[in-house]
Task: structure prediction
Amino acid sequence: MSCIIPIGGGKGGIGKSFIAANLGVLLARQGYPVVLVDLDLGGANLHTFTGMTRIKVGMEAFLNKSVKNLKDVVVPTNINNLSMISSVNCSMEIANLSAAQKNKIINALMKLPYEYVLLDLGAGTNYNTLDFFLSSYEGIITLTPEPTAVENAFKFIKALYFRKVKQVLGQNDFKLYSQQVEMSSNALEVTSQVIDSVLEKDPEKGEILLQELQKFKFKFIINQFRKTTGTKLGEKIEKVCNKHFYSEFQFLGNVCYDERVHDSIFSKNIFVNKYSFTVSAIDLSHIVAKIQGNREVSSLHSLERYERL
Ligand SMILES: Nc1ncnc2c1ncn2[C@@H]1O[C@H](COP(=O)(O)OP(=O)(O)OP(=O)(O)O)[C@@H](O)[C@H]1O
Ligand SMILES: [Mg+2]
Result:
């Protein structure tokens, strides 16, 4: 089964596309078939990171039904084992997907015949972005060390929780339970009060809800890490998240700020290929090793479960 890794985060311009493209190249370099999917439908630019200028076919063809299967809009890149689905030709209307179109994309993503499917998401917390992120239990949240980005990352996680709880309970039940809690501006407070209320009034449903949230193993990366950044920031965020949310959070590592990222984008040359031996490229390869390590552990667990049956 392919591993779907959405790469999101509340804030714009923090390096989601940079991280997605470079992780894609590093995973492909290990020999895995990888597809990068640009799901920033209103601001698609992932193709530029991979050095592609003219894209003939992409997500627009799948959405306007001129192509039936999502795998038929996959185009190769000039990097071995790395393909992509671009959204650069999507119109403004397509950027505002209907729920049916969003579900059509999510269902098709699950069937893509690649070892790794990396989703580059847009900024913000609109429902389409949240649902793309929630399409996998293995999403990566990107942030930078700036307080504004940290704040937006927490907002993003709270929005994911709010959305997931609403999805599991359904519109009517969510309305019912949230009527009984004090609506504050804090999505996490509302969400935890809703969960507590469900657990109290309908323990069976409450348990299902908790189990669903516990399936998520969120990861996060601190990008544009600088010398002045506290070295323990990642660990601190991991601790806070593991304490306050019901899911598991894993800090995958820092990626250092490097002026040459700018140059690699201008020269349409992927950073980890052009500057392979820089600190930032090595940071990214450590993150890839962790992603692969996680995958091995989870397949070992599945094997153990299978053998016990
Ligand atoms: N580690 C880094 N070191 C230096 N510059 C970086 C680094 N990561 C990203 N950048 C710079 O930040 C800019 C924004 O990166 P990117 O486009 O990947 O962000 P994004 O989160 O995908 O933005 P958007 O929300 O608009 O999609 C890049 O153009 C690049 O110049
Ligand atoms: Mg982007």
